[in-house]
Hints:
Bound molecules: adenosine-5'-diphosphate, magnesium ion
Shape of chain B: globular
CATH class of chain A: Alpha Beta
Largest sheet of chain B: 2 strands, antiparallel
Structural class of chain A: alpha/beta
Largest sheet of chain A: 6 strands, mixed
Radius of gyration of chain B: 22 Å
Shape of chain A: globular
Strand content of chain A: 15-25%
Oligomer: heterotrimer
Strand order of the largest sheet of chain B: 1-2
CATH superfamily of chain A: P-loop containing nucleotide triphosphate hydrolases
Helix content of chain A: 25-40%
Radius of gyration of chain A: 19 Å
Distance between the termini of chain A: 27 Å
Number of strands of chain B: 6
CATH topology of chain A: Rossmann fold
Strand order of the largest sheet of chain A: 6-7-8-3-9-10
Number of helices of chain B: 14
Order of helices and strands of chain B: HHHHHEEHHEEEEHHHHHHH
Distance between the termini of chain B: 23 Å
Amino acid sequence: MQKDIVLSVKGVTKSFGGLKALSKINLGIGKGEIYGLIGPNGAGKTTLFNILTGIYTPNQGTFNLDGKDLAGLKPHLIVKAGLARTFQNIRLFGNMSGLENVMVGFHVRTKTGVMGAVFRHYRAREEETNLRNKSKSLMDYVGLDPELTQPSTTLPYGDQRRLEIARALATNPKVIALDEPAAGMNPTETAGLRDLLVRIRRDGITILLIEHDVKLVMGLCDTVAVLDYGKKIAEGEPKEIKANPDVIQAYLGGELS
Amino acid sequence: MINKVFYLEKFKSFQNPKIVWLGYSLVAITLAILPFIIEASIGRTWVRILDFALIYGMLALGLNIVVGFAGLLDLGYIAFYAVGAYTWALLASPQFGLHLPFWLIIPIGFVVAGFFGVLLGAPTLRLRGDYLAIVTLGFGEIVRIFLNNLDHPINITNGPVGINLIDPISVGGYALTRTQQIAGVNFSGAHIYYYLLLVLLLACIFVCIRLENSRLGRAWIAIREDETAAQAMGINTRNMKLLAFAMGASFGGVAGGVFASFQGFVSPESFILLESIMVLCMVVLGGMGNVWGVVLGTLLLAILPEILRDISSPIQESLLGGVWIDPESLRMVLFGLALILVMLVRPSGLWPSKKH
Amino acid sequence: MLGSVYALVALGYTMVYGILGLINFAHGEVVMIGAMVVLTMIGFLSGFPAPLSNGAILLFAVITAILVCSMLAFLIERVAYRPLRNAPRLAPLITAIGMSILLQNIAMIIWGRQYKTFPDLFSTVSYSFGGANITNVQVFIIIISILIMSALLLTINFTRIGRAMRATAESPQIASLMGVNVNYIISLTFVLGAALAAVAGVLVFANYSVAHYSMGFMLGLKAFTAAVLGGIGNMAGAMLGGILLGLIESIGAGYISDFTGGFMGSHYQDVFAFLVLIGVLVLRPTGIMGERVADRT
Lengths: 257, 356, 297
Ligand SMILES: Nc1ncnc2c1ncn2[C@@H]1O[C@H](COP(=O)(O)OP(=O)(O)O)[C@@H](O)[C@H]1O
Ligand SMILES: [Mg+2]
C-alpha cells in the first residue's frame, strides 16, 4: 500500500557531546494515520520531537511537512507550517486558566497587533470573540470545562494532559505530536484519551504518538516505529512489530507479549 | 453552584450601571480636587510630590510590561527614562538652541526611547533570569556614564552639570509651569502638571489593561510562564520580547520627557541605579503583572518615604531629644527593611495579579 | 593586583550562586563592612593602655572583621534568603537588593558619610620591577590572596565538608538524600564567602587607603562580573575571572583614550567592566571555565 506521506524525516542525526542521541533516522508518517513511536527510556524519542519542533537543530538530516522543508526553522515557524506538540513533562502556562492556555494556542492563527489591542477596533474585537468561542469549543472537545478559572497547574493530572492537547490543537495543526500523553493516567483516563485520539484522527489530523503504554499503541496505531539507542530498529504495522525479534530483544522480551 | 449564586448576589450592586457610574464619578471628583485638598491641608510641596508619584506610576507601568507581563527582569530601566528626559532636554532648551513644541517632542521621545529599548533588548534575548538582570543593569550604568561624560570632546549632554532652562510644556503661549488663572481659580504649575500627568497615567493604565487582555498580553504572559512552551505554541518569542522592551521603554521615554519639562533641568544624577531599583520595587512590591497592584506599589513607595522624611526629625526630637539619625539614611534603612519584610510575608507582592 | 581582590570577592558570589542560584547583591556590602570594622578596631586597639605592636593590631582587627562579617552573612542568609528558597524567583533577588540598601545605610549611620583613610600602621615601600611599580602593600595583598584561595581550594577538593559542598551545589535534593545537612552547608557557604569578603575589604582599604560606605556596590558588581567571566559556580573560574578582569580594566583604562582617538577618557573605565560583563553573558554565558548547561525540555 502506497501511503500519502505528510511528514517525512530523512537521515536526522543528533549528538550531545559524545552521546549520539539519534543516528540517521528516517520516518514517513502517512496522512491521517496515528503513527506510534516507541522505544525504551533514553532511546531518543523526545529528542526527535525536539528536533521536529525546532527546539534543537539536527546535526544532519532534514524533515518536511507536506513537501515544505522545516529543518532548522524557528519553533514558531514550524507551528505555523502545521506541526504542533505536547510535552512529556507537562508544560502548561501555570498561572493562566485552562481557557487562556488554549487561547494562547491561537496566537499563530490570529494577527491583532498593538493598535488592535489598545483601540479594539472592529476587526480586533471580532477576532477576539471568535478565538474565545473556538477555544471554548476546543475545551469541550477534549472534555474540559471552559469556565474553570483556576490556575492550570492546579488541575488534575489527566486534565492537564488533555489541556495540553487542546492547546496544541488550537494552533490548527496538520500533524500533532504527543509525547507520552497517557503517562500517569489511570485506566479510565487512558480510555478517554484513546477516544479523544480517535476523534482527532477522524477530524483529519495526523497524530505522531510517543507512548509507553504498549497496549494503547498497539491497539490504536496504524504504523509503529521503534527506536533503540538512537537508531530505528523497526517500522511497520503493529502485528509485524510485535513479532520482530529485534524489538523483543530491545524490550527484554517481557513487555510486548 | 451555590457558591456561584451567592457570589452573584453579593456583587450585584457592582453590576448595576447606576452604582458603577456613581462610583466612577466619585473617584473622578476626588482625583480632580485632590491637589487642592492637599495644598490646603499639608502644603504645596506635597502637590509636587504627588506629581512625581504620577511620573513614577508611568515608569512602573512601563516596567511592568517588561517584568510583570513578559517576565524579563530589567534592572536598567531608568536608562529609558533618561533617554526620554535628555531627548526633551536637547530638543527644547538653549543647549542646542532648539525649542520644538511639546506635541512634536512627545512622539519623538516615545520613538527614540522605544528604539533604545529594542537596541538594548536585542543582545539580551537569549538570556534568562538573573543574567538578564545583570546585563540590563550594565546597560543602565553605561547609559548613565555616557550622559556623565559626553561633554567632551563635543559637548552634547553638558556632563555632570546637566542641562538647564528646559522649556516647559506650553499651550497657546501659556507655559504650564507658571501659575495660571482659570475661571477665577489659581492653578500653580504643580497643579496643572498634576492634571496633565494624571491624564497620562490614566492613559498608561488603559493601554496596559488593554494590552494585558489581548493576544499580545497572553503571549507575553505565556513567555513569562514557560518560554519553551510559548515557542512551541507558535509565539515568536524574539519579536514579542522586543515588543515588550520597546513598549516599556516608550512609557519610560514619555515619562522622562515630561519629567524634564516639569523640573526644568536634567542631570545624570537623576538616573542612577537606585532609581531603577526603586521602580522595580514599586512593581514587585505592589504585585508584578497586576496593573492596580503596580499603581498601589508606586503610591506607597513614592509617598511613604516622603512622609517619613518629614516626620522623622520631629519624632526623633521628641523621643530621643535630638536628631540622631540623618533622616535621609533612616529613610533608606526603612526602605531596605520594607523590601525585605514585604517579600518575606508576601513574596508575590501586596496585590498580586489574580492569576497567582 | 586588583584582580586578586576581585577574585576573593568573586569566590563568595560564585559559591552562593553555585548552590542557591541567587545573586547575593549584599555581598559587596559585606566587603565594605569588613573594611569599616578593621578601621574601627585599629582605632580602638591603638588607644589601648598596653601598647600593642602594629602587626598585632592589624591581626586582631582583621580577625574581628572576619568574625563580624561571618556572623552578618550567617544572619543575612537566615533572615532574608532561607525563608524564600521556594518563593517566586524575583522575591529573593528583591530581598538581596533590600539587604544591600539596608547595610549600606546602616553603615552610613554608624561610620558617617566621609571617606575614611587607612591609618598608617606601616610605611609603604615601592619597588620598581621591569618598568612596573609595585608597593610592599600590593605584594602583601597578592601573597595573602593566593594563600587564602589555595586553602579554600584544598578544603573544597579534599575534605569531607568540601565534598558535601560540591554535592549540594550539584543538586541540593540529592545531597540531602545522601545525608548531607543542606542548611548547614548553605550557612557554611555564606560564612566562608563572608570571611573572604572581609579579607578582601581590608585589602582594598589598605591598597587605596580610603573606605566609604558606598564602596561595596561597585566592587561587588565587578567581582560578580569576574565570577561570570570565569564561569559562575566554578571556583577556579572565579579566581581566573578576577585576575583577568583586573588586567582588562587596568589595560583598558590605560589605553582607552588611544583606542577611541581621545574621544573617551579614563572616565569610561567602568564602562569596560560592564562591557566585559555584557559581552561574556551574551556571547558565552557559561564563562571561560563553566560547563555547558543543558536546556531541559
Ligand atoms: N539537552 C540534552 N543534553 C544532553 N543530553 C541529552 C539532552 N536531551 C537528551 N539527551 C540525552 O539523549 C538521550 C535520549 O533522550 P530522550 O530523547 O529524552 O529519550 P526518550 O524520550 O526516548 O526517553 C538520553 O540519553 C538523554 O540523556
Ligand atoms: Mg521522552
